[in-house]
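Feature request, filed as a ticket because there's no other form

It would be nice if the structure record came with a short human-readable summary line next to the tokens. Right now we just get the raw output. Example of a typical job, pasted below so the devs can see what we mean:
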Amino acid sequence: MYQAFYRAYRPQTFGEMSGQQHVRRTLQNALLQDKTTHAYLFSGPRGTGKTSTAKIFAKALNCVKAPTDEPCNECDSCRGITDGSDTDVIEFDAASNSRVEEIREIIEKVRFAPSHSRFKVYIIDEVHMLSNSAFNALLKTLEEPPAHVVFILATTEPHKLPPTIISRCQRFDFKPLSRADLKDRMEQVLDDSGIPYEEPALKVIAQAAAGGMRDALSMLDQAVSFGGDDVTADDAVMVTGSIGEELFREIAEALSGKDAAAALSLLERLVSEGKDVVRLTEDLITFFRDLLVMKAAPGMPDLLEIISEPDGFMPLSESLPEGRLYAFISILSETQQEMRFSNHAKVYLEAAFLRMIQADGTPVSAAGPASAGAGGEVEELQRQVSRLEQTVSDLTRRLQQGIPAAAESPSPERRRPAPKSKNGFQVQEGRIRDVLANATKEDIRSIKSNWASILSDMQKSQAALLNDAEPVAASDKAFVLKFKYAIHCGMAASNPEFLASLSQGLSARAGKAYDVVFVPEEDWLKIREAFIRENGLQKPSSGENRQEPGNPDEEAAEEALAFLEEAGAPVQDPLVGEAEKLFGKEAVNVYDD
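Raw output as currently delivered:
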């Protein structure tokens, strides 16, 4: 029966392992010095050799030539472990046997000595899938197993293991394999199989494998089946879903030439062919990174990941400044993050293409390359220069005639920024002044008379925010709500549920929908005082002639001043008022607790 490459070419000795030098050296030294321990934890991404290393280590432990740093693969023990018939090496899949009952069965058999080997080795794969009760059952045995037992735990997610398990093991972290290691191993497999191949094809597969040997060999197996007699770059691109170098060149030239139509057409073509947009974004980042490497280190072709023929891409690299390449990579990286939270990845990449075209701040031509719009850019610059020359000429003429330069166009008055309360709440001073300018006694009395009913209709948690709040001014469209404390004012203004409940209560009780303007007490007093001063509503002194012509209407001014004074006065507690009537104001002291 045909065996897949990743099974047929599984490493059988430490020397055949790809990468993981730190793991290999540590285990081999421990074997030679006979300093192996009772429990190991192998963690790392999928396809990096965890289970293969566990089997090689088990063979080296039980080899007839032990202590040795390499299994012989010839003795009965080595051959039995290789073909899975050795009863002293037990492989256990925690993903399908996660219950505590399976672990208890292992614990019961641990005390029995191995049948014909030096050690009984338990290899527990995907150990993070065990239940909490299974981990608890394993704890004591894992810490103090019999001398003839070795546990090897393998996992892709070590963060899911309890710290009590990790602390009882020697931990080895397997790293993703480099593209060079993947490429070398695929070359060995193809040479051994007698299958011809193209060098760029292996680079494409190595890049798509993302550090996993099993993924690389699986895609290589698929490429061999697809191509038949050999492995070509086109076959590898088709199998892995990657993009050929020429398409990358066309996209980069369209972006460099500000040809939005060509760039978007290429993207549409790739999407219609079934290319993954997220994968395309990753590959574009790597491609522009290669162009940067070519500019910075032109004599280092081994550093390139996508570009296999640097000479053919050198003109493109030279035509793109480093600043634009950095901008391209930055925009694509941001887009890659945004795609994670959206179902419309294509739209994000289209927007990224347009941003990349505009990366240097020049106008964009959506219908053709930059050369088509070069004449328009020059004309715009000439118009700007002409306007500047005209401005300088006008200023010179005015100075010669003795006219100040700003006489005809006085600078606009600087707009005073809206004040902020101490907790950062933005006070809407303009709206408050508008309410004061159009305030009526009827509206504020209507709101105040229904205020207790409005609070009773609201939820207790919402009404609690209004314990120290008071309506102080109202027009026919809005009213000002004053808060004693700025923090309560900010909490109320930023709570949409509270605003909806208050608006509903006003409509139901007062019979009119009012907009609410929030303001802390200290800001309200300042705005009110400024409004009185700016509108000439101060009380006239005794020496002033109240009947002089030109004064504002006396009756209207008095009414507005009385209203504002009433709005600014604190609302007195009725109990306090009654006490003052009985005992006099001098004898009554009010304490706020």
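Something like this underneath would help us a lot:
Residues 321 and 582 are 88 Å apart (CA to CA).
Strands lie at 39-43, 89-93, 120-125, 149-155, 170-173, 469-474, 478-483, 515-520.
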